[in-house]
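Good day; I would like, with your permission, to put a structural problem before you. What I wish to show you is a protein chain and, alongside it, a tokenised description of its three-dimensional fold. Thank you for your consideration; the sequence and its tokens are set out here:
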Amino acid sequence: MNTKIKLSTLLLAFILVSCSNEDDTSGEAPTNNTIEVSINEYPTSGDLVTTITSNLIGDLSFSIASQSVSQAMGIDSNSGEIRVLAWQEFDYETTTEITLTVSITNGTDTEEKNVIVSIINVDDIWAFLNSSRNAYENAADGTWVMVTESEYNDLANYMAEVTKSGATDSDLLNSANINANPGQALIANLNESTIPASSYVYAFKHYSWANNVSGTKVKLSTGTELGAYEALGEALPEHNAEYNHFVLKGNATPTTSVGYLAIYVNNSIGYKNISGSPYGWGSDGDTDFLTNGNVGAVFLYQGLSTTLKQWD
């Protein structure tokens, strides 16, 4: 009799434990209040970051209670989809992580979730190229790649710690007529648009007066504006008249001191007569030194540099 009672007791205990375990696993999974996702820097506005879910039942409403970078992301109040708003804020060189708190309510109960968005570093030059991206990907380091005007402007406006050298924007936009210089010389604007120390030159543009031009070189001097100028990367690819725009693939050598930018052209280059603007040239073809100087003209070339290397 005692044995039967013990067996019955054990059986009852087993049933109770089994029911208890089944109840624990049959309910909804515990809420995970922290969500971690990753996204490449410089996404497109409207890109989906993640979708928030909740254990709350009923008609749910989602809202962002706070985020570490204001207006970087927005959320659909009905679906819980978090999307990019201010794509410029997703800059790895500025911040590697953006966090936000999402509030969810069904009108009665409220739940909060923390979202950590890690920004993945990419080649920033690559990120701002569209039609020229394949050419850039296939280029060897030290090669200048032709890009569009809009791509050049994006690289000027959105890269971090950018300096412009050569001709200033105001000079380039000056209403003076564009004239032709015969070239066949090293030419430099001797103004205050210099390259800061520890900078990487990564883009260049200039106004050509001729078609099918080859052999043009971007040149750089550090420490003195009179020389010695050395070619920066390979010669520019063949290009035609008017403004041409380029990026330099894989520049890994920063300037050791203040830098001066020049151009060697073996054909005609555009310039504007602007009072008081100093310039110099070397008349011995592809020379490394400026041996002559004058005032009253600005040669139409410009370089972009940054003290923060943002590419592979």
Observations:
- The CA atoms of residues 205 and 245 lie 4 Å apart.
- The chain is about 15% helix and 40% strand.
